[in-house]
Amino acid sequence: MLGESATEILDRERRRGPAGHGHGDVVTIGVAVFGGILILNSYLAEKLFSRTVDPFAVLLSALLGSLILALPILWSAIKDLVRGKIYMNELVALALLAAFANGEYRTAGAVAFFMLVTITLERRTAIGAEAAIEAVVRLTPRQARRVVEGREESVDAFDELSLGDLCRVRPGENFPADGRIVSGTTAVNQASITGESLPVDKTAEDEVYAGTQNLTGLVDFRVTRIGTDTTLGKVRSLIADAEQSRLPIMRMIDRYVGYYTPTVLMIAALVWFFTRDINRVIAVLVMSCPCALVLATPSAVIAAIAASSRLGILIKDVSLLEIAARIRAVVFDKTGTLTEGNLEVARLQPAEGVDLAELLLVATTTEYHSNHPAAEAMKRLAREAGIQWQDPEEYSEVAGKGVRATFGGRRCLVGRESWLREEGLDTSSMAATFGEQDTTGISIVFVAREGRVLGWIGLRDAVRAVSAEAVRQLRELGVRQCCMVTGDNEAVAREVGAKIGVTEIRAGCLPEEKAAYVQALRESGILVAVVGDGVNDAPALAAGDIGIAMGAIGSDVAVQSASVALMNNDLRRIPFFIGLARRARLLMNQNLAMGLAFIILGLYFSTIGIVTPVVAAILHSTSSLFVIFNSARLVRSGEGLQVPEAR
Q1: Which of 364, 473, 583, 605 maximizes the CB count within 10 A of its CB?
Q2: Could you give the angle at the alpha carbon of 76 between the alpha carbons of 72 and 82, nearest 5°?
């Protein structure tokens, strides 16, 4: 009710559920309409039929109407006092009691009527913003079709489904859990999690996620995550954590709201002492209700969270909105961020006396346990060539440098040329072959066995279609520095930078060097956002003022390693997020200024008798609704943002 913070209103309504607050609003509107009719009847009877209508009937209509309208507000005020809290309910309740004591029944009824209407509209509009979030997290179906020995059985998706179960999903149904397709092909709408506008084709071995919609085919999938462990469950948790967090200005308002009511009561007492005009006192009490001020920040925050969540941008703490609005530098990782991350083998250069098959066999066997994109590219080529790699006897990975393994009793290395030199190997003969071939834009990986360099493998990665557009949009927003840090070589980094418009480049960086570069930028006095894949770039993500993990769908590490997680790989979400944060900050300032202006001017004009109690109630309603509707403009932000390339 009146006086509670917007987040407390939403918390209470969330516990009641959609049906609960819907029923409560119907009752409130019913009470307001019935009581309003009685008050209007008393007005009309006195003005139009004063000679024929019994004055007692007019008085009774006004009294009953005002009691019906005032009781919900008085009851809320009593409950607040019982809980030991003083909100704005008490101000309105005192105004109503003062009107009753003075016999101003119609005034009390009119004030209560506008207050009840405002309460309902505030609640419905504020919760409407949150409904955009709730629509995302209510997508997991309650029932699942589990397949046991070829027969389907309906089970509870939350209580009875287990890891490893085989489930069947028909076209038009939502997936009840995360899993991996066993049989069938289909197109899946993942917009509920990633915000992608285009469906994604899925076939055997592809991952599917709870709450996403199966569009075209009948598929069976093996459950890999259930309940709160699913991707959608993590999305729900992140959204809930964000809603419960506070901006600094929200914490300040919460801290001082307890002093507000006593101050207003003192002002009302002074007005009564000097004027002896009860209507002025009532107007002061009504006009001083700071609903607009209390709603100013939370309403904008909830609207911003709703807009970002719809597009697959998960914000862990709303205080990040304040930081994001002031970002002036963005540092990108290259592989998997600015580029697709789907490396392909572009060159194979064996040493003298080494054939291509041997070079590829040693490379893929050494990289057997690696999930790096380079390792996956080598394995794809070996599979196409019919080369079967082996399981090494020993395996270890050196972060940012390469991997070492032992198989067949021989020690093998795959990694950077500089790392092999550190390990005491002579790479000069193979490095000389660079000039014999076009290695522009190619990342080079050296392969060695038992102290001898067997050759090198060149890998190429495609630049994302939207990378250049995202960088351009960031510059338009006033981001002064768009930088790229990568462990790749200088030539590849320069080529990618030229394609997307990034001139500040740091190549050949180890993970700790990336973090040091980010820290140096921060020490120069600017706020820095770091964009990476959330796995290899964890130190750099943690070093920035904001860490943004790309492509976090299905990745526990990515969701946990950054302060903001993008559930897809559309880089345009980053300038959208920064722009959204700036619009949210602007709306908060507008709301706060409007709320303060209404209160200060309203109190002044109420004190000198220009604003009557009824007009004060109307102005109060107007200010609150202005704040709500002004914030609600953020909810529809980004509706035109779509992923351009088909999957």
Answers
A1: 364
A2: 145
For domain 344-460, the CATH superfamily is Calcium-transporting ATPase, cytoplasmic domain N (3.40.1110.10)
Which of the residues 165, 178, 333, 488 is marked catalytic?
A: 333
Q: Can you say whether residue 84 is alpha, beta or left, with left for phi > 0 and alpha for psi between -120 and 50 degrees?
A: left
**333 annotated active-site:** yes
Kindly report, residue by residue over 20-60, the tens digit of the pLDDT: 444 555 676 777 788 878 877 887 777 676 666 677 777 78
Tell me phi and psi for residue 223, to 5 degrees. Answer: -70, 130
CATH number of 326-339+464-567: 3.40.50.1000
Q: Indicate the SS3 state at residue 530.
A: strand
| Three-state SS at 222 | strand
Query: What is the identity of the amino acid at 116?
Result: L
Residues 6 or more apart from 225 whose CB is under 8 A from it? 163, 177, 178, 179, 210, 231, 233
Q: Do the bridges between strand 443-449 and strand 410-415 make them parallel or antiparallel, or are there none, so unpaired?
A: antiparallel
With residue 494 as reference, give the H or E element that holds it: helix 490-500
Q: Are 194 and 312 in contact (CB under 8 A)?
A: yes
The count of other CB atoms within 10 Å of the CB of residue 172 is: 9
pLDDT tens for each residue of 364-419: 999 888 877 788 889 888 888 888 888 888 888 887 788 999 988 899 999 988 88
Count the alpha carbons within 13 Å of 60 in the hemisphere toward its beta carbon: 5
